[in-house]
Design a protein that fits this description.
Blueprint lengths: L1 H11 L3 H19 L19 H12 L6 E8 L6 H16 L5 E3 L8 H5 L8 E8 L5 H19 L15 E5 H36 L2 H27 L7 H30 L5 H28 L7 H32 L12 H10 L14 H8 L1 H18 L5 E2 L11 H12 L8 E6 L7 H7 L3 E4 L3 E2 L6 E8 L6 H4 L2 H14 L9 E4 L1 H35 L2 H29 L5 E2 L2 H27 L5 H28 L7 H33 L19 H10 L1
Parallel strand pairs: 5-11
Antiparallel strand pairs: 1-3, 1-4, 2-3, 6-9, 6-10, 7-9, 8-9
Helix pairs in contact: 1-10, 2-8, 2-11, 4-6, 6-7, 7-8, 7-9, 7-15, 7-22, 8-9, 8-11, 9-10, 9-11, 9-22, 10-11, 10-19, 10-21, 13-22, 13-23, 14-20, 14-23, 19-20, 19-21, 20-21, 20-23, 21-22, 21-23, 22-23
């Protein structure tokens, strides 16, 4: 206790508060001078799957045996609704000739369409002669920004040849030639651009939203700016630390991860600040010494802030157990960010409040009754009447009707949760992007004019053992295959034969992904029929479809491991913090119910109001981590208040006052946190939109249903058993609850 008091005095001391602020500012400046910001070190195509996955092993085999096949393709789609003219085709030939003689950066090869007679080239046209596809291959090891450099140069060459820019022409132009770049390269370039363009917009929208909400809630410009200043300084400390760690090879951070991190920092960071600011304001109304009031606020809120941040950190760190790269890569940077933000909330924010004192709340400065009377006397006014405490309607309702509250809230949440069983998931990575994205427009044209499977062929590699296997005929006979290439022997092992097959469906669709096991079993069956007793080890399937199938399976595996880990970890923290198994159990159950309700309500909004047929398969885990960790914060805050008050008053009164005392701050914090996640709806990426909607709705359910009604009602109904196996050390409560009496009777 003495150590904590000394820390409190340090943070609010007349000199040391300035020292604390200076330490943070110097750290931010020095770190940004010595290390690169995280924005300069993010990657856009980190490997999503571990080396143990079949599609990854198949890709490694392709790299070794078919090095040319591992080039990344940029598919240039040329389209004219009335039909491509001979002049169009001749210029396309000039385009490929120029790239053959003057390759653009990171280009590896280009099919020599310019060497084909015009009549032969016309055989590659679509059936209505409106479309042709000319691929250009790039180095697979290049980053998306390097691919963009090469593709942009190729576009300039095309514009020079055609005399105008066909890539700027609308895809539905009735007469003009239009062109789009799709395929792996085109899609990755556009995806990176979408995230990059939204970066600054997301940051600005988040800051403005938090600022407006703080101004509306607290009506104080200084107070509204204080959390933003603290989060901003913390961010300038976090960014170079993560940048240095990435630069040193210690961690990897993806672009979309930094977008989510921005939202999480501003949302959670502002919440932590509000917990402290709320207690400070309450104490300023009864304590004339602002230093003592601030020290009391630090003492009263530091435990909840530390526990809340620890809960989020440990929940995020459980994602280290994930195999899927996008999950695993979030763990370290997010955990480090929340740790530093929590540290800033416990040190930097108190220092800022100590420097500004009561003026932090201008123009509505909280004062003690004595200070108000003295101020009125100086102005020649009568002493103001002592204000009546605000009505605690929610707390009163909970303690009067706990059974009704519990039944109604469970029906409401359970009803929404039932809709979670209707959710349809997809791992189609193209579905997350807007249909107006250039590469998606190009893909749509290919799907309409050719087979959509040409966008991303599936490569089947078979170890024939030097024998004649009936693989090509079997592949061609499959109802979902539209085209099979001639077999290609391996570079170092000629017994390996590779077949490129084009599916007659979207190769990124769930339907296509689910065909991968069937395709493997079919080829293995062919090998077994021809005498191969080890057929399972002689078939490899690579390509985008196979990798997406492995992504789906990996996601299912991660969910089955990470969800129980988070629940066990948070339950353990709650038991240690509350010293109650019963309380930990029902708090976990309420948050799980809230999560399922958020998923169901999110599906109602996304499907029935926003017209989305499916949500991305990674959303449930993302939402679970954020909602379970962040939602438990509010439970911890209200239960901490009830626990403390129950030591000096009957439980019913403790619940009533605890709900009333924490109501405004948690409502404010919940609105701000939900608002920051809702900002993701402005992103042009469905993954972010869906995450924003579901997480924001879940936080609102926690804020307005679970925290003020369900949790207090359950606590009251359980009575002293809510503290089991700990003992409630309080005054005698004459109003024992029904459940409490029932337990007491059964114990007797």
């Amino acid at each position: 206790m003495k150590d904590r008091i000394r820390i409190d005095k340090w943070l609010v001391g007349p000199i040391t508060r300035w020292v604390t602020l200076l330490i943070w500012l110097v750290a931010a400046v020095l770190l940004n001078t010595l290390a690169p910001p995280i924005s300069k070190e993010v990657v856009n195509n980190a490997p999503p799957l571990p080396d143990t996955k079949p599609s990854v092993q198949a890709r490694e085999l392709v790299t070794r045996e078919y090095p040319n096949a591992e080039n990344a393709s940029a598919l240039f789609v040329w389209h004219r609704q009335g039909g491509l003219t001979d002049t169009d085709l001749q210029r396309i030939q000039q385009f490929t000739e120029r790239l053959s003689t003057r390759p653009v950066p990171y280009q590896t090869s280009v099919p020599p369409l310019h060497q084909m007679p015009l009549q032969a080239l016309k055989t590659k046209l679509s059936e209505d002669r409106s479309t042709i596809v000319s691929p250009v291959f790039f180095s697979k090891s290049a980053q998306s920004n390097e691919w963009k450099e090469g593709v942009d140069q190729a576009k300039k060459e095309a514009a020079d040849i055609f005399g105008s820019d066909p890539f700027a022409v609308a895809i539905d132009s009735p007469a003009d030639l239009n062109a789009r770049v799709t395929g792996q390269v085109g899609i990755q370039i556009d995806a990176t651009g979408v995230f990059g363009q939204a970066d600054k917009t997301l940051l600005l929208a988040t800051v403005l939203l938090v600022l407006v909400l703080l101004l509306v809630i607290y009506r104080s410009p200084i107070l509204a700016i204080t959390p933003l200043v603290a989060v901003g300084i913390a961010y300038f400390v976090i960014s170079p630390i993560l940048g240095w760690m990435v630069h040193s090879g210690l961690i990897t951070v993806e672009k979309q991860g930094t977008n989510i991190m921005t939202v999480l920092l501003f949302g959670a960071g502002t919440d932590y600040c509000l917990f402290l600011i709320y207690r400070f304001r309450q104490l300023l109304k009864i304590e004339p010494d602002k230093g003592k009031a601030l020290r009391g606020a630090i003492t009263g809120s530091s435990g909840a802030i530390a526990m809340s941040s620890l809960t989020v950190i440990l929940a995020l760190l459980t994602m280290i157990a994930a195999e899927y790269g996008s999950f695993r890569l979030l763990a370290a940077p997010f955990g480090i960010s929340i740790f530093i933000m929590g540290l800033a909330s416990l040190t930097l924010v108190p220092a800022l409040l100590a420097i500004m004192g009561r003026a932090s709340f201008w123009p509505f400065i909280p004062r003690t009754p004595g200070m108000l009377a003295e101020r009125a006397k100086r102005k020649g006014h009568p002493a103001p009447a002592v204000g009546k405490p605000s009505r605690n309607m929610v707390g009163s309702l909970v303690v009067r009707r706990p059974w009704l509250i519990m039944v109604v809230t469970c029906i409401l949440l359970g009803g929404f949760a039932l809709f979670s069983t209707q959710v349809k998931f997809t791992f189609d990575k193209l579905a997350m992007f807007p249909k107006t994205m250039a590469s998606i427009e190009g893909f749509t044209v290919i799907g309409e004019q050719f087979s959509p499977g040409q966008l991303a062929p599936v490569k089947v590699i078979v170890d024939t053992g030097g024998k004649d296997r009936d693989v090509a005929q079997t592949l061609a006979s499959l109802p979902y295959v539209s085209q099979v290439s001639a077999p290609q022997a391996g570079k170092t092992n000629p017994k390996l034969l590779a077949y490129d097959i084009s599916l007659n469906m979207n190769p990124y669709s769930m339907e296509a992904m689910n065909l991968i096991p069937e395709l493997r079993q079919t080829i293995e069956g062919v090998l077994r029929q021809s005498g191969d007793t080890d057929a399972a080890t002689h078939v490899w399937i690579s390509g985008e479809t196979a990798e997406q199938y492995d992504t789906k399976e990996t996601n299912i595996r991660d969910m089955s491991i990470i969800l129980p880990l988070i629940i066990i970890m948070i339950a353990t923290l709650l038991v240690v913090y509350l010293r109650s198994l019963i309380a930990a159990a029902y708090l976990i159950v309420t948050v799980l119910l809230s999560y399922l309700s958020a998923l169901g309500l999110g599906w109602i909004v996304l499907h029935y109001f926003m017209g989305m047929d499916m949500i991305q398969g990674t959303i449930p885990l993302y939402s679970f981590v954020f909602l379970i960790a962040l939602g438990e914060d509010y439970n911890i805050f209200v239960i901490s208040s009830i626990w403390q008050k129950s030591k000096r008053m009957p439980l019913k009164q403790a619940i009533k006052e605890g709900v009333g005392e924490t109501g405004s701050v948690i409502t404010s914090a919940g609105l701000i946190l939900a608002g920051t996640f809702a900002v993701l709806v402005t992103m042009p990426v469905q993954l972010m939109v869906q995450m924003g909607v579901i997480t924001a709705l879940g936080i609102l359910l926690d804020t307005f249903v679970v925290r003020p009604f369900l949790v207090p009602a359950l606590t009251l109904l359980l009575g002293k058993w809510a503290f089991w196996p700990g003992r409630r050390n309080s005054v005698t409560d004459p109003n024992s609850t029904a459940i409490e009496k029932q337990f007491a009777g059964s114990s007797a």
